[in-house]
């Protein structure tokens, strides 16, 4: 069976790292993108090479807030692998700030990385690769109006609309779907009860961890009739 290739942005740490491990276990070749986390990306590549010596794992550095660099990423990966079967727009920046407190620098940072970069990558993927699957990582916040992460939330709302616009324009050759997690991995500075406290206010009352997200990705990849959908993987958090 011919191996397939996935490009995962922000693959060095957190959710991106887990996605890479999961897909590698399923025999995918991987283009591992990073920006500043070079050590972690190289360590992940070396680990995957040792675990799966018959597969191909390569790292690509790109500052997604740099328009010129961003416009070259799909070209570079496609040159190395000849085809990208799956694009996962996972990389994001996440900064708290209300509308009143958001300056232009913060607004531009959040929009550039969380929305503009996926837009460019989706555009180039459609023009260069011409077939495959795109999965955009969103956030349960897209269903709410809380302004404590105003710029971040708006960037993800824009990406959710782009997900459905892309599905409409790129079909039938490219399917585009989104996954909107809730609290999955605690922030670095959070206390040990962070996830449990967040989960207590959701309908399911439990922390989901990575498994529901990985199962959502599998569902998208396995269902060739699914496009333009956003899977809320948040224990019902979008309802409150």
From TrEMBL:
Q: Name one Pfam family in it.
A: adh_short_C2
Record keywords: Oxidoreductase
Q: Does the keyword Oxidoreductase apply?
A: yes
| InterPro entries in the record | NAD(P)-bd_dom_sf, SDR_fam
- Listed SUPFAM superfamilies: NAD(P)-binding Rossmann-fold domains
Reading the lineage from the top rank, the first entry is Bacteria
| Gene Ontology terms, MF aspect | oxidoreductase activity
Similarity field = Belongs to the short-chain dehydrogenases/reductases (SDR) family.
Give the protein name, as stated in the record: SDR family NAD(P)-dependent oxidoreductase
Task: Name the species this protein comes from.
Answer: Ancylomarina euxinus
């Amino acid at each position: 069976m011919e191996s397939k290739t996935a490009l995962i942005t922000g693959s060095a740490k957190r959710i991106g790292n887990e996605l890479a491990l999961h897909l590698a276990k399923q025999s995918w070749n991987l283009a591992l993108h990073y920006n500043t986390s070079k050590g972690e990306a190289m360590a992940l590549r070396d680990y995957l090479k040792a675990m799966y010596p018959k597969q191909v794992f390569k790292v690509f550095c790109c500052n997604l807030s740099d328009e010129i660099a961003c416009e070259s990423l799909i070209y570079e990966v496609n040159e190395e692998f000849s085809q990208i079967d799956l694009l996962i727009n996972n990389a994001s920046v996440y900064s708290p700030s209300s509308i009143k407190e958001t300056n232009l620098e913060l607004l531009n940072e959040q929009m550039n990385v969380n929305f503009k970069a996926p837009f460019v990558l989706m555009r180039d993927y459609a023009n260069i690769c011409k077939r495959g699957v795109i999965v955009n990582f969103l956030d349960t916040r897209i269903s709410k109006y809380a302004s404590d992460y105003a710029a971040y939330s708006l960037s993800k709302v824009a990406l959710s609309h782009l997900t459905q616009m892309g599905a409409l324009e790129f079909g039938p050759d490219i399917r585009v779907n989104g996954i909107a997690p809730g609290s999955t991995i605690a922030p670095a500075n959070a206390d040990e009860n962070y996830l449990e406290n967040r989960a207590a206010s959701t309908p399911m009352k439990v922390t989901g961890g990575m498994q529901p997200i990985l199962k959502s990705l599998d569902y998208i990849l396995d269902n060739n009739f699914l496009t333009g959908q956003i899977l809320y993987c948040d224990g019902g958090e979008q309802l409150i």
